[in-house]
Each structure stands twice: as structure tokens, then as C-alpha cells.
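Worked example

This section walks through a single chain of length 304. The input is the sequence exactly as stored; nothing has been trimmed or padded.
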Amino acid sequence: MEALKGFDIDAPRWDQSTFMGRLKHFFNITDCRTVLLPDSRLDEAKALVESCRAGSVPPGTTEEQLHYAKKLYDSAFHPDTGDRMNLIGRMSFQVPGGMAITGFMLQFYRTVPAVVFWQWVNQSFNALVNYTNRNAASPITPKQIGVAYVTATSTALATAVGLNLYTKKAPPLVARWVPFAAVAAANCVNIPMMRQQEILNGIAVTDEDGNQLGHSRKAAVKGITQVVISRVTMAAPGMIILPIIMQRLEKYRFMQVSMIQTKLIICTLICSSMAVSKLEPELRESIISQYGDRVSYVYFNKGL
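Given that input, the structure is written out below as C-alpha cells.
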């Protein structure tokens, strides 16, 4: 137990400089089983994490228990505020929640009412996720949230309905790709608008030890761009490849069950860095004047 007194609970469990290390971290904090735990269990995990940070590890606590507490903390509490996030907005809810909605969008794409309804459900879900995982150092007003939500939903609906009507005479497979086009278009609008304050005011950047160096708009743009690309990329396999598989299998009777697509989707990563040389001139000069060449990169929470 003595060894745990100096345990750094915020140190990465896996090597974050490697792909496999980042992948293990990603799977760890997005474990959908954590959404089944009661708030009381999550609060216990937070208390243990905070105790460890304060250098006071409860007697009898094992290293594995500390790792698990940090896993629960990272999966359910905002990295900036430490507040417990709403269940639907947590990244650990993305697999079951996103899976179900994607399945419905891929199944019910033939009629305009169905397209409108499921695109609305999907964008409502995305808006909540984007807001929940925003960089909390850049607050957003209810009006801005509303504008972002309406704009993204309108973009998705216009794209989906327009393409749906346009592809009436196109091969069936083309029509099956309409939901992906709508999701991609909406993400390009929803995320930047939901996090517009970050672009306008910048986000906090730190050195590798977590010391805050200032705020950067360029870091915000880079982080948001990475999130947009990752969201679209993550949606691509299920929404592009799966329709091809479904097109081939639909002729078989066992594939006539509408929710089979949802089941098939089951089978189908928070921090970013930026070179000091690419920051705004005033921030770059400030960092150089204080730290010289000791700080080459800054780090920031890009959100999820």
C-alpha cells in the first residue's frame, strides 16, 4: 500500500505516443457498460480519484481499483469542470445510442416522413453530445445553442430529403447512402456552431506538464476540425459499407427483419497538440519570452 501513496492517477495507463496505447485509452473511456452504473457509484469513483490526487489513498485500495475509478471518472465527468455529464451525452453511450439511431436511419430511408423523423432524432442526439463534450472554458448561450441546433437539423433534413428525392430513379444502393451524406453535412455545421465561442475566444493551451500558457483561436479551429473529421470517419464504415452488405443479403428471407441492420452495426479516440510556431503571433511571443525554447508544443482539450 505504501507504493500507492505516490500513485499518479492522471498519468496515462497506456503509452499515448503509440496508436495501440491511444486505442486502448479510447476503448477504456467509451466502455458502454459504464452507463449502467448508478450515479452513486460514479460519485464514489470521483471521490476516490480526488482523494488520490490529494495524496490520500484510502487504506486497502489496490492499484487496479484506482485504475477502474479513473476509468469511471473519465467516462462520466467533464474533463474541464469535473461535473457529471448527462447519460445520453457521454461518449460511453455512443455505441448503444448511435448504433440504434444509425440502424433506424439505414432501415427507414424510403419515405420522406421517415427520413425527416430519423434525421431529426439523430441531430438532436448529436447536438446533445456536442454540447455535453464541449470545451467548458468557452461558455455558450442558450440562444447560440438553439441556432446551432436548428441550423444543423435544417442542413441534415435539406440534404437527406433533397438527395432522397433526387435518387428516386437511381440504383437502390445509392439511396441507401443518403443518410451518411446527411450526417456528414450536418456534422460540418453542428459541431462548429455548437462550439463557436471556442473559435471566437480561443481555448486554453498548456505545456506538457499542464501549466496554462494562454488561449488560442488557432488551437480551437484545429481541435474542432479534428472532431468533425473523426465524427464523419467513425460514421463511414457502418453507413457506407453496411448498406452494400444489406443490398446483397436482402434477397434472403432471414434478412427481412427490419432491426437486423441495427444488430449488424454492432459488428462494424480527448487531448490534442499544436506546435508553438503555429499559434497566434502574440501568444507565440508571450510563450517564447517566458519559456524560451523549452516549450515546443502546447496541448489542449479538443472535445469529443
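What to look for: The radius of gyration is 22 Å.
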